[in-house]
Amino acid sequence: MARALQLPEGRVLRYLGLRVVQVVPTILAIVVLNFFFLRLAPGDLAEVMAGEAGSATPEYMAMLRQQFGLDEPLLVQFLKYMGQLFQLNLGYSFRNSMPVLDLILTRAPNTALLMLSSLVLAVALGILFGAISAQWRGRWPDGVLSAFSTIGFATPLFWVGLMLIVLFSVELRWLPAGGMRDLQQVHTGLAAVGDVALHMVLPVLSLAFFYIAIYTRLTRSAMLEVQELDFVRTARAKGIAPLPIAVRHVLRNALLPIVTMTGLQLGTLLSGSVVIETVFAWPGMGRLAFDAVFQRDINLLLGVLFFSSFLVIVSNLATDLVYALLDPRIDVR
Amino acid sequence: MSLDATDILPRAAAASAPAAPKPRRAVRTSSFGYRFLRSRTALAGSIGLALVAGAALFAGQIFPGDPLDMVARPFMWPLTSAEYPLGTDMLGRDILVGLVYAARVSLAVGLAAAGLAVALGVVFGALSGYFGGWVDQVLTRITEVFQTMPPLVFVVVVVAILTPSVSSIVLGIAVTSWPQVARLVRAEALRLRDAEFVQAARVMGMGHFRIILTHILPNAISPVVVAGSILVASAILTEAALSFLGLGDPNLISWGSMIGSGREVLRTAWYMTALPGLAISLTVMALNLLGNGLNDVLNPRVSLT
């Protein structure tokens, strides 16, 4: 990264500033959409509350509406809603008797653990498989790995999860089928870490399956492209052995698209984790969204949508920044 | 390759060449049909898809009667009975019949969602790329907003708020997948809007919308066709995930909802979960192969083997 350190600081900072400014309208639009959805959902907050209480007179409902500001003009309500969001207040979940943001923040680390482990596994295996494929292009390892990635692209994540449960939990009894911790005995220290790790194996494998296929294909095509370039031929002519060429000349230069892909993948990875968390009863954000749907907790559901969209924006920004740092040719007007 | 002897030589000369032992029939090797038949991926994909679509279309003729009927003893494993080759589910319904009828729902949702997404994407992309300037700025920002929200979470919100039904599922999937098409079409329109034949049309006094319809879109169709078949595949996967989560149309059975109900007996009868998953996998694979094949077929620079 010596090159990155020599960059004029101002260039990257100016670029970052510009991107942040560009992001503001996107966030605003998402806020508008969220508010629109909130209004569109059948039953307002007063009805939900009254339903909880069992019975409600029209006077009580009117009082509730006044209390929550639901009788004010739409524009006033929208401005208040926006004001709340900018104070990081995502509303209150009456089902869980907790502020939405607190609920999300208690679950987010579990989702992050699941997603990051899957991503690391997918990138590592995908680069390995892709490199093997490119190196033995057209021969049997390439054929086997292509078949694997074709299957990976076409198979629903949740089904992979269910089949892994059948094999490893039901038939072989090697791994737990769900949850994050052993409920029968409380582990402490290192044993607790091991317990979580054991529960993570199947969900991580299922979530990574699809992404291994993506990275395999991406690495393969990026490496094949770089292999044709002049400096690789020069290296070959100098008599460098094939393996060092593949790793140090070809792979290193094929990594840029992989960085982009990783940053832009967060949204779909979050989507994948919704289903995987549901399959494995993993206590993360996806599971929270799933429960919110069936408890008709629209506030919570929209909170998860807003929070995860925000994460995607941040990760896109980070990707752009890494990209600009890695490749000085990128125009950062 | 696109350039072949038959393309360069006048046809009569090629046919009457004395050196040739047999008069060679003039086949245009650059034609779509020829290239399609030469592409193994495109062919394999379309055969697979034709089988699934045929079964779905003629489900009523192949298996007359209600697929929800309880016809036999429940929990019959596949390959144990000649009459029910794929076994029966927990209510004694024939799984093969269920799979074939569910194919209708999955394919219909996939096609409708992809169709709507392509329509939205073409309109946004063409306007954005052709007009440029502030129109492009605004439309690109809108596209970005829809690309930012995690797709499945967004679909779940749309379907949950509109209550689960085929139309809300189609709408939800389309709303999350059109940006990909819009970006493709925008890039094509951007490339074509200063092409000479478009400039000529403009000089002739042709209106903007007529130029877009008759000059820009026909030339931008190849990537859209490819993206379309991949979109059908991903829409089928999304529909399956939604139905599995319990957000499918409650009145219809799709492959996803079969997996969802099979899951309850996963420990004792995993075949009820495995079979619909295989059906999804094979269908999606066929569509992906068709998409990749079409990509090669429509790109004259790719030589087919």
UniProtKB/TrEMBL annotation, chain A:
Q: Which UniProt keywords apply?
A: Cell membrane, Membrane, Transmembrane, Transmembrane helix, Transport
Q: Which PROSITE patterns match?
A: ABC_TM1 (PS50928)
**SUPFAM superfamilies xref list:** MetI-like
Q: What protein is this chain from?
A: Peptide/nickel transport system permease protein
Q: To which protein family does this belong?
A: Belongs to the binding-protein-dependent transport system permease family.
This protein's membrane topology, according to the annotation, is: Multi-pass membrane protein
Q: Which chain regions cross the lipid bilayer?
A: 12-37, 112-132, 144-170, 190-214, 254-280, 300-326
Describe the location of the ABC transmembrane type-1 domain by residue ranges. 108-323
InterPro entries (alphabetical): BPD_transp_1_N (IPR045621), MetI-like (IPR000515), MetI-like_sf (IPR035906)
Species, as recorded:
Xanthobacter agilis
**What compartments host this protein?**
Cell membrane
Principal subcellular localisation of the protein: membrane
UniProtKB/TrEMBL annotation, chain B:
Against PROSITE patterns, the record matches this protein to:
ABC_TM1 (PS50928)
Query: The ABC transmembrane type-1 domain covers which part of the protein?
Result: 103-291
A Pfam family matched in the record: BPD_transp_1
Q: Which InterPro entries match?
A: BP-dependent_transpt_permease (IPR050366), MetI-like (IPR000515), MetI-like_sf (IPR035906)
The UniProt record lists the keyword Transport: yes
Primary location? membrane
Q: Where are the transmembrane segments?
A: 42-64, 109-132, 152-176, 268-290
Q: Where in the cell?
A: Cell membrane
Topology in the lipid bilayer: Multi-pass membrane protein
Asked whether the keyword Transmembrane helix is assigned, the reply is yes
* Superkingdom in the source lineage: Bacteria
What keywords tag this UniProt record? Cell membrane, Membrane, Peptide transport, Protein transport, Transmembrane, Transmembrane helix, Transport
Family, as annotated: Belongs to the binding-protein-dependent transport system permease family.
Q: Under what name is this protein listed?
A: Peptide/nickel transport system permease protein
